[in-house]
Amino acid sequence: MALLGNPFVANVPKQMSNEELAQALRVDIAGEYEAIIGYESHAMATNDERAKKVLHHIADEERQHVGELEQLLSMISPKDLTSIEKGRQAVQQQQSQNFQAPMQ
Question: 68: part of which helix (H) or strand (E)?
């Protein structure tokens, strides 16, 4: 959740290491997902089709931001990319076995 009352919340007082930047990017990704949930919740809570259209459009833009941040994170922290790919492969393997085998 944004700390709107603190004008210095986004000011980092030093240069970040790649490890610190990776952590900051993970927080940014979480924020984008939080925004998606909020916009879609607002869209679901209204019958105004104009508002729904705009809110869904904004949520889709946030999804694009997730992709951009994830790509940047994979460049900054290849370990993240490797782990994410292992997770994808594990689920794909489960899917190919119709989710019958135990997860490894």
Answer: helix 49-76
Please state, in angstroms and rounded to a whole number, the distance separating the CA atoms of residues 27 and 71: 14
Given a cut of 80, is residue 5 above it in pLDDT?
A: no
Q: What is Dmax (Cα atoms) for the chain?
A: 51
Q: Which two tokens stand for residue 95?
A: 């899917």
What predicted TM-score, i.e. pTM, was given to this entire model? 0.81
Tell me the angle at which helices 49-76 and 78-96 cross, rounded to the nearest 10 degrees: 120
Nearest to 29 by CA among 71, 58, 81, 57: 71
Report which of residues 80 and 101 the model is more confident about.
Answer: 80
